[in-house]
Each structure stands twice: as C-alpha cells, then as structure tokens.
Amino acid sequence: MKEAYNYLLNEIGLKYGDSVVVGVSGGPDSMALLHLACRLKKAMDINVICAHVNHNVRKESDSEKEFVEKFCANNNVIFEYIKIDNWGDDNFHNEARSKRYNYFNKIIKKYNAKFLFTAHHGDDLVETILMRIVRGSTLRGYSGFSRTIDMGDYFIIRPLINVTKGDIVAYDKKHKISYVLDKSNEKDVYTRNRFRKYILPALKNEDKNVHQKFYKFSKTLLMYNDYIDRQVEKVINYICPQNIINIDKFKEQEYVIGMKIIYYILEQIYQDDLMLITDHHAELIYNLLTSKKANLRIHLPNNIQAVKAYNTLTFVREKTSINDYEIELINYANLPNGKNIEVIEKTTSDSNNICRLSKKDVAFPLHIRTRHDGDKMSVKGMLGRKKINDIFIDDKIPMAERDLWPIVVDSNENIVWLPGLKKSKLCKTKDEKYDIILKYY
After folding, report:
1. Strand pairing class (354-357; 436-440)
2. Is residue 16 included in any domain, yes or no?
3. Side-chain half-sphere of 318: how many Cα atoms within 13 Å?
4. Which of 33, 144, 185, 360 has the most CB atoms around it within 10 Å of its CB?
5. 36/148 same-domain check
6. Quick check: helix, strand or coil at residue 343?
7. Interval 347-380: pLDDT, tens
8. 435 and 287, same structural domain?
9. Contacts by 298-305, CB closer than 8 A, 24 or more apart
10. Are 298 and 337 in contact (CB under 8 A)?
C-alpha cells in the first residue's frame, strides 16, 4: 500500500488543488482507496469527491450508501450518489459497469476533475486475465486492464494494481477502516467468484507474488498491442473508411493485421460493452470476409449484425421492439421471463428442459433471443422443419408468453433448442456424444 500511495503522490502528476473522483462501493478495496485519497488530501490540499453507486439489487444497498456517506461526512469528503432504478435485459454485470462509468463521467465533468481512482487490485487483474483467456478475447482484452488510461479530459488511475486483496485487508485492519461486505461475491453462479475462490488460491500456493507476474504479462501484451495498433493505423482508412470493410483490400493484409482491423471496428462499435465480444466473434467475422459466398450475415451481441454484400462488409443494428432481447450465453443467463438457462456439468434428465450439444455441430457462441417472423426449427424425431409459432399453438402457450419465450440459436442463426418445449436435431440424447449440457429452469 505504501507503493500505491507514493505512486499517487509522485508519479501521476497530481498537483495542489486538483480534484479527484474516487469510485467507492463501501467494500474493503474501495474504502482503503478512499482512505489513501484522504491522506493525499491532507498532504497536498486536493479536493476528493466520493462517487457511490447504489445498484438497487440487494436489500443492504441503502444501508451501504448511508455507511459511505457517513465516512465522507466525518472526513470532509464530498459525497455524490446515484440510485439505479431501471435495468435492461442484458448481462447484469456489463450493464452495471456501463452505468457506473457513465455516472463517474458526469461527476468528473461536474467538478472538472483530472483523475478517477478505482479500486481494481492485483487479484482482480489475475482473475480478469484468466477469465478472458478461458472465454476468448482480443490481444488488449487478454492484458486485463491498465494502471492508467488516458480518457482525453481526465485519467482513470488504478493505483492498487500491484496490491493483493490480503494487503488491502491488512491495511484496513491497521488503520481501523470499516467496510461492508457484498454477500453475492460468494455465490458460485458468477464466473469471477469461481475464479476468485478456487483458481486464484491455487496459483498463490505456487507463488505468493503471482499477481506481479500477471502484471508484467499484462504490460508486455499492451506493448505489443500498441505496436500492432500503429501498423493498423497506417492502413485502416484505406481498407475500411467509415467502418465499412472493402473485402478485396482486406484480403491483401496478413492475418494478424486483418484480425486487428476487425477488433478495431468492434471496439468502435461496442466501446464500454467490449467485454461482450470474444475471439469467437472475431473469427466468425474473419470467416465471413474470406468466404466465397457473396451475401451472408451473422448475429453479434446487442442486436448487431455483420452483413456481407459482395465486396463490402457493414455492421448494422437490428430493429427491436420493447419485448425483443438477445443475450449471449456463456455460462449462465437470467431471462426476462423470470427463468434461467445455465451450462451444467451433468444430469440424468432427458426432458425438454435439458439440451445436450456437441460443439462440433454448432457455431459458438450461442445466443438466446425472442422469436422472429418465420422462425422454423428442425424438431428432433420429425421430418422437415416446423414453425415456432405452430409449436406454441400446439403446446397451448398463451399469447402473452410467446413474445418473451427464449429461443436458443447458434451464431449461424440455426435454432438449436426451444427450452421447455422442443429440441432440435442438433440436440443429443444421453447415449450420444456431447460436450455441453444446458438446463432451463
């Protein structure tokens, strides 16, 4: 923690009278960071603004707000607060992050602050890198996150990137800093929690300073990524003016440059939602660009389509109605109809609430969406294809439920499963070969 304090004091260009915003949840990490900021306030007479976000999804959220607000009052820190009332149907953690940073940006502008401090620490970096390696990501994505990000008008600073969770808790104890604990951080349903509880401790048993090795790995990837970015900058306007790819010019490039061009465009499209994109999506787009077929399209997260028409590839947003949704399925998805779909390890059930798939038969990633006009599926055990609407009618599904009923499709828009109702020919029985099991409940 001493290194983190000296870094803030001497290396980021902090000056007397500057304003800094600190993102504070009330947990041990952010409270330690806020305490560091208060020490800087005394040393340099800076203005410290605490920005707290109430996600409004747990009963403890209101009391956590009061806890942070009281700390700020006792330490002469400006307290800013927002309570989120409306959530969409997409990935909660991604949406929460987007809402937080949009709010932080407003507070930065309100106080003309030069810095935003966030409490991401060394263990967070290890978890992020491992998750992205397992899930697939961009070269920049594999690096996790940077210690400093230039946002143009201000800098995001993550001073605890070299510090472990254990170091932070010890600092809190030493300085008698109170904090709150989020019980949802213990739930195994969240991927990050599983990495934190089971994988990270095993790595630390091998090397207690493993977070430093991951930090070096992160910096190395960022260095190489920046070099490739400079090469892409030389050709990007030639190949894809206005984010429309000229396919003939694209094919002139080496594979690594071509993939980086794809990632560059995806970064422009998704921005704060970039974590929705994996290397699977980039490979699908690359295959689309190099396919001999003249007219093709694929579906991407957030209702984006990549559309190939002869010698050009464009990205368009699908029109959606209030009941439309499309959610990428990685390990778990909470659905707008109140149900869930989860990837599970094993089950003896073979009901329509279970779908077994072979990865060689479907194009990943899978998506869960609402019905589209003309949707048909090849029902297991039947000849030909059947309209989804006819299945709803045969099973006497009420009209009010049909618009939100989940349909699982692969990245080539093949319907692989109508959860709870019908399986497609792509679904396997218990006796066939499969390597993924989905459960609807």
Report:
1. antiparallel
2. yes
3. 20
4. 33
5. yes
6. strand
7. 989 999 999 999 999 998 899 999 988 899 999 9
8. no
9. 298/411, 298/412, 298/413, 299/326, 299/367, 299/409, 299/411, 299/413, 301/270, 301/273, 301/276, 301/277, 301/326, 301/328, 301/367, 302/90, 302/270, 302/273, 302/276, 302/326, 304/269
10. no
- Beta strands at 376-377 and 386-387: parallel, antiparallel or unpaired: antiparallel
Say which residues have a Cβ less than 8 Å from residue 76's Cβ, sequence separation at least 6.
Answer: 41
Q: Which amino acid is at 51?
A: A
Q: What domain count does the chain have?
A: 3
Query: In this structure, is residue 228 part of a structural domain?
Result: no
Q: How many Cβ atoms from other residues are within 10 Å of residue 247's Cβ? A: 19
Is beta strand 354-357 parallel, antiparallel or unpaired with respect to 366-369?
Answer: unpaired
Rg (CA), the chain: 24
What's the token pair of residue 236?
């990007």
**Do 176 and 245 belong together in one domain?**
no
Range of the domain at 306: 234-317
What is the 8-class DSSP label of residue 34?
Answer: H
Give residue 89's pLDDT band: very low, low, confident or very high (50, 70, 90).
very low
In a domain, 221, yes or no: no
State the pairing for strand pair 148-150/115-117: unpaired
DSSP reduced 3-state for 376: strand
Is the CB of residue 49 less than 8 Å from the CB of residue 22? Answer: yes
- Rounded to whole angstroms, the Cα distance separating 350 from 432 reads 12
Dihedral, CA atoms, 158, 100, 144, 37, nearest 10 degrees?
10
Q: Where are the alpha helices (DSSP H) in 181-254?
A: 191-194, 200-206, 210-233, 236-239, 247-250
Angle at 217 (CA atoms; ends 30, 301), nearest 5 degrees: 70
